[in-house]
Write a structure and sequence with these properties.
Radius of gyration: 24 Å
Number of strands: 39
Oligomer: single chain
Structural class: alpha+beta
Largest sheet: 8 strands, mixed
Length: 619
């Protein structure tokens, strides 16, 4: 895969099923117009497909319970997403909403007469509600720590609200914007259940609860007090289900997300999955119930497994996703459909249990090899090696993932494929701190950044370098976010092992991160503790004088998760010492540049990465 091949990747996204109607959203980068395109496609039981809508970007499709209509979000040009409906037997989609900041994913009422969704409502005079530009807006008065969010911006002057829309386009604001709302569902035809911060967010909190409110508007009432975070509620078989974690205080990091259940009145909630061994992947979508249990996706050693959890709990049966990554799924009757990504496929639509898979346009993929070994303390290490064509020995790039409570997976990874196509063997470690190996594995780095996680990544690198097809004399290290932190740390403490480094959207200094990141006010304390000396000891910037290898500092201008100052401080520290260093800043991008940034910027970044490694690893 070459940088320009981004436009050849057609990625299936959300999926919906009702009877023999299976609809999948697809997305393809358009480099020429610097946007993403894709409509809804119908997938037939024999695996053939046909376009079903023809919008610029259509997604979040939901088929009505009576099977007659499909609701979805449509983005036209640079407009905001709006809710549309179209009959399942064809016709022109009809727009139901016209909201200034767009609408969230719609959810059908049980009687198929209305849809609920979340939409941010701007204060008068802000965000395009007048013809004046932002420079004429009044100042923002900020009194809370949770005042902004990456890829959103300031949040206090555009709070999300629940909206209900009828099929004739009549929109009702159900909540008043005095508190955040998310993840709406229908408790019955007249009552909504939704997620809100603990005590409706009267003060900053990492905990959330379930509330109810009449679908026509009214006062919110507490339904379930969460044990930690609460998300994705739904009703099935006379019971209420949701996903949630358990923690106290700010100890919310590296917690496995589990399946919970209670009667519909919210009483006597119980956790149905083991807190240590079962970690649900929310990015794969809303859990759903069928006749035998609850379908959801579990993170397990780099696999994203579609499992059916029995109604009385347990680890569940794996339906799809062994040595693969289930990105989305849907169920109706006996039909289960999943979008499955594999090392050589960005995504296929699979009719689970039938062997039928539908692939969309992609690119040839380089071989992926699983790696296993042991750290110096005997702890098992796990990851992958993506190999170029030819016998080698190949120069090596180790790419550390972000999070840290995330993972490299069995799914298609465009970055590793680009680097392998260019001739580099790519090492993908999942060190302690990663998700999918048990909650204790994820929490092993709390208060210990730069210790066991470093041991793990270097131990897996040693496994890769023991192969005859890799070159131990030509090794580079790179990563983004926590991976950027690790790149900076390794460059300072183990720089002799690498020829060059590419540190992207990194955390370099916990002191300023605490006051500038959208999550800094709790994240730094939760992972590093509150002692300033301990935070400095775990900050790569503290050891900048030890970095002597060529070092790329890469960042997005509008990154509020790891703000730009994290890059600037490292760049200045290295430049003043005469280290061979460069800083690359992407205008208008946030923390998610590599995954969902403007296609042209993603291509330009790939080109810059390859130029960097060609300069230092191929010479």
């Amino acid at each position: 895969m070459r940088p320009e091949d981004l436009q050849l990747l057609t990625t299936p996204g959300t999926v919906a099923v009702s009877g023999d109607l299976v609809l999948v959203s697809i997305t393809t980068p358009d480099l020429e117009k610097n946007t993403y395109r894709g409509g809804l496609h119908r997938v037939f039981p024999d695996g053939t497909t046909t376009p079903w809508t023809h919008g610029d970007r259509d997604n979040a499709q939901r088929i009505s319970p009576d099977g007659k209509l499909v609701a979805f979000l449509r983005v036209s040009g640079k407009s905001k997403p709006q809710v549309y409906v179209v009959p399942v037997d064809g016709g022109e989609p009809r727009r139901l909403t016209d909201l200034p900041l767009g609408a969230g994913a719609p959810v059908w009422s049980p009687d198929s007469s209305r849809l609920v969704f979340v939409a941010r409502v701007p204060e008068a005079g802000r965000y395009g509600t007048t013809d004046d530009g932002p420079e004429s807006e009044a100042p923002r008065r900020i009194t809370r720590l949770d005042y902004r969010a990456d890829d959103v911006g300031f949040v206090g002057d555009r709070r999300p609200r629940l909206h209900v829309v009828t099929l004739d386009g009549a929109v009702t604001e159900v909540t008043d914007g005095t508190h955040d709302v998310s993840d709406p569902a229908w408790l019955d035809d007249s009552t909504l259940v939704f997620v809100a911060p603990h005590e409706l967010g009267v003060s900053e909190t990492l905990k959330s609860d379930l509330y109810t409110v009449p679908a026509g508007g009214g006062t919110a009432s507490l339904l379930v007090r969460g044990a930690g975070e609460v998300t994705m509620p739904f009703v099935a078989g006379g019971s209420l289900y949701w996903l949630g974690t358990e923690f106290t205080g700010i100890d919310a990091v590296a917690r496995n997300l589990g399946l919970w259940k209670s009667p519909v009145d919210g009483s006597a909630p119980v956790r149905l999955t083991d807190a240590e061994t079962v970690d649900v992947e929310r990015l794969s979508g809303q859990p759903v119930a069928d006749a035998s249990g609850v379908l959801l996706v579990v993170r397990n050693r780099g696999a994203l497994e579609l499992r059916r959890i029995p109604f009385d709990g347990g680890p569940g049966e794996v339906l799809a996703g062994s040595s693969a990554a289930v990105r989305s799924f849907a169920s109706h009757g006996s039909t289960v459909v999943a979008v499955v990504s594999t090392p050589d496929s960005v995504g296929q639509v699979e009719f689970v249990g039938t062997g039928v898979r539908t692939a969309f346009p992609s690119v040839p993929a380089r071989r992926v090899v699983e790696l296993n070994g042991s750290a110096s303390d005997g702890y098992p290490v796990h990851g992958w090696l993506v190999l170029p064509d030819g016998d080698g020995p190949h120069p090596v790039v180790m790419a550390v993932h972000g999070g840290p409570f995330m993972y490299h997976s069995w799914g298609f990874f465009d970055e590793a494929q680009v680097y392998a196509t260019a001739g580099y063997a790519v090492v993908l470690p999942n060190p302690r701190g990663s998700a999918g190996y048990g909650e204790s594995h994820g929490q092993a780095v709390i208060g210990k950044f730069g210790t066991v996680d470093v041991d793990d990544v270097l131990s897996l690198l040693d496994v890769a370098l023991a192969r005859e097809d890799t070159d131990s004399e030509r090794v580079g290290v790179m990563g983004g976010s926590y991976g950027g932190f690790m790149t900076s740390w390794l460059s300072a403490h183990h720089g002799e092992r690498f020829r060059a480094a590419w540190s992207e959207r990194a955390v370099n200094a916990w002191d300023s991160f605490s006051g500038s990141s959208d999550i800094g006010y709790f994240f730094a304390d939760a992972y590093c503790g509150t002692d300033p000396d301990a935070q400095r000891a775990m900050s790569p910037l503290t050891y900048a004088e030890k970095i002597n290898l060529p070092f790329a500092v890469v960042h997005s201008e509008h990154d509020w998760r790891c703000p730009l100052e994290q890059a600037q401080r490292m760049f200045v520290a290295l430049k003043r010492r005469g280290v061979e260093t460069e800083m690359l800043i992407f205008p208008g991008e946030g923390h998610e540049l590599t995954r969902s940034g403007q296609p042209r910027h993603r291509e330009q970044r790939f080109e810059a990465v390859l130029e960097w490694w060609d300069r230092y690893l191929k010479a």
